[in-house]
């Protein structure tokens, strides 16, 4: 008779007969724990009539109702609202605003007449009260508790009978039945399993706050992300007020929606139309600026790219970027020098975005190229112009993803001229755009001929 595996990895479930320090499947250290004896045989039990299996054709969308939190951007990310019994894991870096956002969600739900239980394992009741007072979240239906013991939290849920539960955070809660330290893989697994089971049995939505590691992933075992229904990531630069909420997993809605928020002194405020956050306030075109339309989830956002080209004073020219990928900027510089006859090897080049947003998609290549060319020639591009397209190493301009949606959004915002893949080649698009900008800015009566060879 084969011997049952005695050790199991808490990260991926890999089993082994003897203890090892490193998992043989996921290669994680310190995650192999004793699994116990063989599983006991489970007898089949009778199924109540209310829980009997039903044909899928008899089920409707009304069988999974949801209610809106009152914060439109958060509802957009969740797919229209919170589903009763759903477990949502909200992760993010320390200080990014996770607790502030969830406290605003709790206050909005309590203001609508729903009883909310907010359990804080990191802050005292007085600290949460001060934040609630500052952000205007004082509501009589919002109940606070400062607990780190799992059994006490489950008792609070039973006695309070809330319609929404928020636990901040899952890594600070510990179970008395587990000998591991709070935040350890085994503790996080047991705590998340118990809270999820309690939420499902009571049909109460549960919002969990999760810490992240240095690489941005959720701290704890990967099993944590499998247990919950929604995994929402809250990110943003601390130096700017803008925050984004994205979902990497959503059992009740899409995973490509993005919620936009702004951190203020009075709390967090949703931004329903972020079209003006990433554009400069100058009313006249300036050399070295170009607007592109970026995609954040399903949302098209105009973003201004700025460039500065100056003569280098060192043997090694500088390439400084902010908000864009340095490797893509280096590629665009090489394409401009090879296919647009722009010698930039001895120039310092600085490229940045406005508003702190980060552009990582290739659809911003053309805007970066035009901004650099405009700065190098000291010529402002034509007004109300947007550039959308990906640049290849051969100097071709390719269509960006969802190019039609981007162009439609650009024209809706008043950008009459859109430079895109229809220009075909960089050696045609860049000189023609610079010439058009020079002619737009030239005094009346001094227009250059359309066929001027030098741009």
Automatic annotation (TrEMBL):
Residues 348-455 are annotated as: Lon-protease-like. It comes from the Bacteria. InterPro entries: AAA+_ATPase, DNA_repair_RadA, P-loop_NTPase, RecA_ATP-bd, Ribosomal_Su5_D2-typ_SF, Ribsml_uS5_D2-typ_fold_subgr, Rubredoxin_2. Keywords: ATP-binding, DNA damage, DNA repair, DNA-binding, Hydrolase, Metal-binding, Nucleotide-binding, Stress response, Zinc, Zinc-finger. Residues 435-455 are annotated as: Disordered. ATP binds at residues 92-99. The keyword Disulfide bond does not apply. SMART domains: AAA (SM00382). A motif (RadA KNRFG motif) lies at residues 249-253. Residues 63-212 form the RecA family profile domain. The keyword Acetylation does not apply. The middle region has homology to RecA with ATPase motifs including the RadA KNRFG motif, while the C-terminus is homologous to Lon protease. Belongs to the RecA family. RadA subfamily. Plays a role in repairing double-strand DNA breaks, probably involving stabilizing or processing branched DNA or blocked replication forks. DNA-dependent ATPase involved in processing of recombination intermediates, plays a role in repairing DNA breaks. Stimulates the branch migration of RecA-mediated strand transfer reactions, allowing the 3' invading strand to extend heteroduplex DNA faster. Binds ssDNA in the presence of ADP but not other nucleotides, has ATPase activity that is stimulated by ssDNA and various branched DNA structures, but inhibited by SSB. Does not have RecA's homology-searching function. PANTHER family: DNA REPAIR PROTEIN RADA, DNA REPAIR PROTEIN RADA-LIKE PROTEIN. This is DNA repair protein RadA. It comes from Agrococcus terreus. The gene is radA.
């Amino acid at each position: 008779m084969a011997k049952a595996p005695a050790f199991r990895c808490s990260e991926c479930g890999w089993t082994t007969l003897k203890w090892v320090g490193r998992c043989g499947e996921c290669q994680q250290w310190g995650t192999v724990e004793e699994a116990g004896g063989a599983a006991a045989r489970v007898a089949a039990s009778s199924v109540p009539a209310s829980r009997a299996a039903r044909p899928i054709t008899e089920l409707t969308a009304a069988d999974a109702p949801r209610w809106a939190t009152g914060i439109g951007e958060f509802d957009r990310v969740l797919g229209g609202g919170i589903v009763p019994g759903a477990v949502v894991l909200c992760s993010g870096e320390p200080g990014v605003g996770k607790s502030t956002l969830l406290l605003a969600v709790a206050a909005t739900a309590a203001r609508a007449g729903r009883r909310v239980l907010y359990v804080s394992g990191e802050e005292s009741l007085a600290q949460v009260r001060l934040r609630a007072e500052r952000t205007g979240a004082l509501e009589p239906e919002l109940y606070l508790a400062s607990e780190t013991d799992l059994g006490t939290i489950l008792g609070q849920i039973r006695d309070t009978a809330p319609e929404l539960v928020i636990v901040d955070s899952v890594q600070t809660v510990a179970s008395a039945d587990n000998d591991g330290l709070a935040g350890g893989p085994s503790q996080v697994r047991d705590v998340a399993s118990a809270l999820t089971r309690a939420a499902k049995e009571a049909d109460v939505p549960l919002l969990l706050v999760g810490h992240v590691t240095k690489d941005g992933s959720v701290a704890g075992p990967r099993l944590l992300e499998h247990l919950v229904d929604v995994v929402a990531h809250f990110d943003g630069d601390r130096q700017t007020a803008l925050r984004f909420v994205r979902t990497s997993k959503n059992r009740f809605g899409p995973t490509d929606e993005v919620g936009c928020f702004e951190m203020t002194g009075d709390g967090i405020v949703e931004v329903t139309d972020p079209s003006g956050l990433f554009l400069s306030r100058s009313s006249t075109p300036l050399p070295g600026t170009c607007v592109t339309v970026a995609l954040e989830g399903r949302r098209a956002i105009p973003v201004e790219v700025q460039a500065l080209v100056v003569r280098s004073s060192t043997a090694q020219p500088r390439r400084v970027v902010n908000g864009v990928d340095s490797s893509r900027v280096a590629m665009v510089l090489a394409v401009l020098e090879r296919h647009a006859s722009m010698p930039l090897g001895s120039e310092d080049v600085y490229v940045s975005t406005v508003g702190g947003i980060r552009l990582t998609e290739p659809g911003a290549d053309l805007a970066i190229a035009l901004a650099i060319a405009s700065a190098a020639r000291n010529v402002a591009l034509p007004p109300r112009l947007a550039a959308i397209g990906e640049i290849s190493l051969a100097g071709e301009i390719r269509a960006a993803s969802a190019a039609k949606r981007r162009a439609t959004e650009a024209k809706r915002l008043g950008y009459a001229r859109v430079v895109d893949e229809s220009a075909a080649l960089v050696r045609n698009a860049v000189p023609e755009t610079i010439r058009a900008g020079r002619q737009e800015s030239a005094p009346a009566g001094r227009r250059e001929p359309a066929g001027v060879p030098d741009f």
